[in-house]
Amino acid sequence: MDERKKLHVKRITEGRDQIAAFRQGSENAFSPTFLAWQQRIKQSLGELLGKDHDYTRRFSHLYFWETRVTPEEFRWSSRDQRVFEDDLSLAEQILSDAIEEFEISPPSSALEKVPASAVPQIVVNVNTVLSQTVEVEISKVLASLDGLALSAEEREQAETYAKELAREAKGQQRWSVLSKSLDSLKAIGKSVYERVAIPLILEMLKKQAGL
Fold it and tell me: What is the pTM of this model?
């Protein structure tokens, strides 16, 4: 690993460790210290992994406050605080995964030799963390992606976001969390959004209606 990459890994590691201080301190999403931290992490993820990498995009989609339109509503609220804490937890997981993956990932030349037969293992790993009911729904939804011309990275991203969306739809159903997964699926492509996001959201709405 060259010195430049070591620097960014160090910054990301320090940024992850700093999350504990944000939880215990008085900063919020608008504090200069936090904004500097957020931009530093974005820059280092982009330098290490690229702006289009899954971890970079997922971190960029964290808002850390409940976004709204009316200027007079720009006061920190208890709902903002909940979103702030939820997104800090998501950021901590993203950064931990990114550090772990970057440290153990083989060179790109080795990655190119991975056989296509290894790809279906991703579906198994996704399904094992879901409840039995959602697992069936996810397997059906992911099977619908087979007919799309997706790269291995896009397929993996679609499965990751589908897992997050399904878990939240069956759990607390927080729109701040749901919207991030929906935006991420939409960014992959319209067909992915239609085949993954819409069925899962419709299933959630049906359950809310008692259907």
Answer: 0.50
